Amino acid sequence: MEMKRFSTMILVIAAVFTVLTACSNSTSGGKESNNSLVIGIDDKFAPLGFRDEENNIVGFDIDYAKAAAKKMGMKPKFQPIDWKTKESELSSGRIDLIWNGYTITDDRKKKVLFTKPYLKNAQVVVTRSDSNLTKLNDLKDKAVGLQSLSSAADALNENPIKSKIKTITEFKDNVLALNDLKSGRLDAVVIDEVVINYYMAKEKDTFKVLEESLAPEEYGVGVKKGNEKLLEKLQKALDEMNEDGTASEISNKWFGEDKVVK
Fold this sequence. Notes:
The protein is of the alpha/beta class. The chain folds into two domains: 33-118 and 220-255, D-Maltodextrin-Binding Protein, domain 2 (3-Layer(aba) Sandwich); 122-217, D-Maltodextrin-Binding Protein, domain 2, CATH 3.40.190. Helix content is 42%, strand content 23%. Strand 9 (143-147), helix 6 (151-157) and strand 10 form a beta-alpha-beta unit.
C-alpha cells in the first residue's frame, strides 16, 4: 500500500515538472518560438519613426527595420518606449533592439552593442524663422530646449556655450520642444538635423537652423550586451541590404536621396 502511494506521488511530481517545464519554455523562449523581434522606438521622431494621420507607425527606420527583419526571417514588433529608459528596456529583455535615430556614443557603447553606423546626422540649433539668432554665441542668456537624455544633451554639454545659456529645459520628445519654440516659450532647440529638416519641409518659413552645428554623429542599432549572435545576424542583414540596393531604395523614399552609410 505504501509502495503504491509512493509511486503515485512520483507520477504526480513528474506531471507537475512537465507542466512547469512547458510553461517555462513558452514564456522564457517565447520570442524565439514565435520568431518575433521587439524593436524599441520613439514614436515621435519623424521622419525615422512616428505615427501618421491614421496612427500607424511609419518612417525610415521602420521600413529599414522591416526589411532587415525579413532578411533575418523574423517578424518585427515595434514597441514605443520612453526614450529616457531605452537602455534599461533593452537590458531587461523587454525589447530586443533600440532602433530609432539611436546615436552611437562612447558612453552608450559601455551599455549596449552597436551595429556599424547606417546613417549620418548632426546636432543643430533651430530657432524661429523671425529670430535674430544667427550663431551659437547668440544663445547667451537665452532659453533653450532639447529632448531629455538624448545626444542633443551630450552635444550641448560638450560645448562652451552651455555655461552662458540662461535656462535649459528638457522635454520628453522633440515635438513638445518645438511646440514651445513656436509659442515663444523657448528661444532655440537643440535637435537632430535629420529631424528638423523634416519639420522645416512640412512647416515652411516657421524655423531656421543656425549655420554652426554642435556635433556630427552617426546612428546605429543597439543590441543587448552579450547577445553577439543577434548582432551578427542583424549586421549580416544590413550588409545585404546595402549590397542589393534595398537600403538605398528606402533612403530615397524618405529623404529623396541615398543617405545610407555603406
